Amino acid sequence: MAERLYREIGEKIKLEIIKSKLKVGDKLPTERIYAELFGVSRTLVREAFIMLEIEKLIEVKKGSGSYLKSQISNQQSSKISDVGPFELLQARQVLESSIAACAAHSITKADLNALQVTLDLESSELNSVEKANAADRDFHLLIAKATQNTLLLDTATRLWDMRDENSMWQQLHERIKDSSYHGKWLDDHQQVFDQLRKRNAEGARQAMWQHLENVKQTLFELSDTDAPNFDGYLFANPQH
Amino acid sequence: MAERLYREIGEKIKLEIIKSKLKVGDKLPTERIYAELFGVSRTLVREAFIMLEIEKLIEVKKGSGSYLKSQISNQQSSKISDVGPFELLQARQVLESSIAACAAHSITKADLNALQVTLDLESSELNSVEKANAADRDFHLLIAKATQNTLLLDTATRLWDMRDENSMWQQLHERIKDSSYHGKWLDDHQQVFDQLRKRNAEGARQAMWQHLENVKQTLFELSDTDAPNFDGYLFANPQH
DNA sequence: TCCATTATATTGGTATGCCAAATTTGAATT
DNA sequence: AATTCAAATTTGGCATACCAATATAATGGA
């Protein structure tokens, strides 16, 4: 474990808030009260409050007190980051296919050149898993960047980074290393690129969708565990 | 202003990291060094470090030091929340239309019922702006929830909440109050609902796209300032 | 020379104490 | 009884001091 103490305190405070049924706008117990309650110094409670403040759950006002800013859900209480890899891929499929379609309208020659460079890098770095992975990330994020929309890039980045935080993905990633799937995905990337160069929005959407469909399929084959429930959407194509 | 000092220190540290060109994995200067550099106590630097840690930018290891966890972009450096309302709406249009299409596959009768209730609420609460606004939020987020995908709901929620943090939106919102646009948007919502009920994915996508197109159009009319650059995408329909 | 062991220094972790802003209280005044 | 204003209290802000874990340097034996 060896987790920093302020986090532990912070989680305890969240539970305390839930238990005492505080509503948005309500005043929280003071730092000193929590300190005594948990048997720690006020410094630690203060750090925990900062954590909650950064998470936008509370608002701290000097001389007045701290106030509940948004309702605490059980999800926020524990770790949200550990969603299944299939759920993550599905989200990426839905969102990134649209981002690719959007990018097809706004992509510039410079963007296309950058993508080309990344594609070349991917094909030349098939041996180094780390390099190939970085290039993979670049490819997807460059497309999001080509939309010229900060929030779309931000969304794509957030989803990608979640992948690396996901514990189950780590395990699956080990097996992907051994396989030769990066070669297959390279073809996928090439097709997405071709559609973008033609500025074909629907083609780009389709290609990106199919690419992530293939990734899901691969992951499915590699995982010996039972597949989580996809509600019949795993292999469904929204284009149909 | 009256912002809490640790935030200020945290931003300064981010700039300092960028200026010194630290890479992911590199070791940061110690808390004591920053404390002396900024002329504050180590406590404040420590609080700033906690802020960066919560933001997943750094990792703090007792007895060893703190390390850069992910590359700091200029966006994370300053306030990311203050993107233009049009950029935000464009992102919502791209993403939420796909989310609606996805939801059309997985939506349950219970979801549809909840949506119906929200629609009724919207039409009955046309006078109370606050209530109508809450219902509006519920409508959009219920659809995201109907995808059964945590991350899609999370994404939609994030985008919506950004709206309220956006300073320019606040001003525009004042004028929307006076207008009767909520009535028009109610029709849009009804159409989205109809497509979802028919489980028509492409219809839902189209309807949601058009709805947010209308919102953009309204905002465009209401804002007397020159429109930001949309790169010809503002009125483009990816379905074309 | 190399490796294991111990001592020292470095670095983050926690507690205590005092300061400043905000709030509350209550006495004085009308 | 209502209002005003100042003193006291409450509450978060910040700094200093010491503790504990880690890393590094020094030491000594093989």
From TrEMBL, chains A, B:
Annotated HTH gntR-type domain residues: 3-71
Xref: SUPFAM superfamilies: GntR ligand-binding domain-like (SSF48008), Winged helix' DNA-binding domain (SSF46785)
Keyword DNA repair recorded: no
Tree of life domain: Bacteria
Signal peptide: none
Swiss-Prot/TrEMBL keywords: DNA-binding, Transcription, Transcription regulation
Record CDD domains: WHTH_GntR (cd07377)
Coiled-coil spans in chain: none
SMART domains attached to this UniProt entry: FCD, HTH_GNTR
GO MF entry, a single one: DNA binding
Record-given protein name: HTH-type transcriptional regulator LutR
Organism: Marinomonas spartinae
Source species taxonomy: Bacteria, Pseudomonadati, Pseudomonadota, Gammaproteobacteria, Oceanospirillales
